[in-house]
Write a structure and sequence with these properties.
Blueprint (H helix, E strand, L loop, with lengths): L2 H26 L4 H13 L2 E2 H8 L3 H14 L2 E5 L7 E5 L1 H21 L5 H15 L8
Antiparallel strand pairs: 1-3, 2-3
Helix pairs in contact: 1-5, 2-3, 2-5, 3-4
Length: 143
């Protein structure tokens, strides 16, 4: 097997392992993984259009609609018409949504840090640089 394929498989397995831990944390707060991702995106980036959220969390059009509608029903997100373009709907995190995500985020950040704890700071910086190179983001400001 080529080393590139081995690297890709290792990356997928690592992401899946971390995602499973995030799913567990989200479920403990009554959220699905998709709901957690939407709330986290709105929490960290502020109001965004549905399309922007979809791009941020790498979701499909069909999936994002269900996730957003369930978050609206739960009172965690509000849909706000975008004044400059009636075709665009903005998503706004409510106080209840902020309260829920603020409980989960610290636990998730701690879990992520623990997942990388065996690496030195230099190794983490090198890994980030390598991943940015592979993704074509080398030299660009990270989000």
């Amino acid at each position: 097997m080529d080393i590139e394929l081995k690297i890709l498989i290792a990356l997928h397995r690592t992401i899946n392992k971390i995602d499973k831990k995030t799913i567990k944390l989200a479920n403990n707060s009554g959220l699905t993984f998709g709901q957690f991702m939407v709330l986290e995106a709105l929490y960290s980036k502020g109001d965004m259009s549905i399309g922007e959220v979809m791009d941020k969390i790498l979701s499909s059009v069909g999936t994002i609609s269900v996730i957003v509608n369930n978050l609206v029903k739960a009172g965690y997100v509000e849909k706000i018409p975008y004044v400059e373009d009636k075709r665009v709907t903005m998503l706004h995190l409510t106080d209840d949504g902020r309260g829920v995500i603020e409980k989960v985020i610290p636990e998730n950040y701690e879990m992520i840090a623990e997942s990388f704890s065996m690496l030195t700071e230099d190794e983490k910086e090198s890994l980030l640089l390598i991943l940015k190179k592979i993704g074509g983001f080398y030299g660009k400001k990270s989000n």
